[in-house]
Amino acid sequence: METSFREKRVLVTGGTRGLGRSIVELYLNDGARVALCARSGESLDAIQEQYGSQVIARQVDLMDLDATQGFVSGVVAEWKGLDHVIVNPPHSATVPISQLTLADWQKSYEAIYRSMLAVVETALPSLLQQEGASVVVISSIAALEPLDVVPASSVLRGGIAAWVKLMTREYGARGVRFNAVEPGYIDTHIVQAGVTRTAKETGRSPEEVMAELSQPIPLKRFGKPEEVAKAVYFLTSELASYVSGTCLLVDGGLVRGV
Ligand SMILES: NC(=O)c1ccc[n+]([C@@H]2O[C@H](COP(=O)([O-])OP(=O)(O)OC[C@H]3O[C@@H](n4cnc5c(N)ncnc54)[C@H](OP(=O)(O)O)[C@@H]3O)[C@@H](O)[C@H]2O)c1
């Protein structure tokens, strides 16, 4: 079966580090054209230089609605369409739920939902014109088992499962598939920052904290960003042509519920 993305046009938000970066690289190495954004220009310049016209790398803050819509519509105009969209949202507030203010909730909504809705709404007219188009949203295990450290993200991500189902019902007959992935503990910059913080607060080494967090994971380790990228790749590919409205856990078996 053909799984190459050669000549396909893929847009990834937040693509210079962590999960987004691995997703970007997987598609680029498979011959796709990839448009990505981030806030800091340096890494965007490096990717642009490395991959040339195979890439559109733009400095965009996804918390800025106009800039987000402008980024997506600019890519659609430049490439005369898009085949796949990967929504990789900014992080949300990491304060305990008792300290979350209305302003924090609003900001988290803007990070996780408004950016997703803006990206998808802007890309949709183009996706509807392509054969085999799809959208994948990066959600989290927090959607299933709320995490105290990311209360707003936990609450909001619970709704993404409903969103991909509703979008599938609305647009499935017109050929666009909608899915999400729910990563567990993946070894990225943000997770390492959390591990270092906990290590400092509890007087342990980062290795000890990692070992403790890995203990309840049946595969006994954190995931790698490329392992999430492969799940995203699968969901956008022909291999998943009959998969829509689903959330795929990529958590090493951590979530216990059925
Ligand atoms: N890592 C995990 O274990 C894990 C697990 C479940 C879910 N997730 C979710 O997956 C997503 C990515 O996490 P990650 O660990 O890969 O994060 P990361 O390593 O911090 O990378 C985030 C990427 O997004 C960009 N970005 C952040 N805020 C942005 C904004 N406002 N506008 C534009 N770009 C922005 C960053 O570049 P700049 O900083 O230059 O903007 C970077 O390229 C998040 O939504 C996170 O909640 C992660």
From N to C, what is the helix and strand string? EHEHEHEHEHHEHHHE
Count the beta strands: 7
* Fraction of helical residues: 40-55%
- In angstroms, what is the radius of gyration? 18 Å
Q: What name does the CATH topology of the largest domain carry?
A: Rossmann fold
For the record, the CATH class of the largest domain is Alpha Beta
Count of alpha/pi helices: 9
**Low-pLDDT ranges:** none
CATH superfamily name of the largest domain?
NAD(P)-binding Rossmann-like Domain
Shape: globular
CATH architecture of the largest domain: 3-Layer(aba) Sandwich
Taking the sheet with the most strands, its summary is: 7 strands, parallel
Proportion of beta-strand residues: 5-15%
Strand order of the largest sheet: 3-2-1-4-5-6-7
Q: What's the N-to-C terminus distance?
A: 31 Å
How many structurally independent domains? 2
- Name the average pLDDT: 96
List the ions, cofactors and other small molecules found in this model.
NADP nicotinamide-adenine-dinucleotide phosphate
Structural class: alpha/beta
Describe the structure.
It is built from nine helices and seven strands, in the order E-H-E-H-E-H-E-H-E-H-H-E-H-H-H-E. 46% of the residues lie in helices and 14% in strands. It has two domains: 202 residues, NAD(P)-binding Rossmann-like Domain (Rossmann fold, 3-Layer(aba) Sandwich); 35 residues, no CATH class. The mean pLDDT is 96. The protein has a seven-stranded parallel β-sheet, with helices on both faces. The chain is of the alpha/beta class. The structure holds NADP nicotinamide-adenine-dinucleotide phosphate (NAP). NADP nicotinamide-adenine-dinucleotide phosphate binds next to helix 1, strand 2 and helix 7.
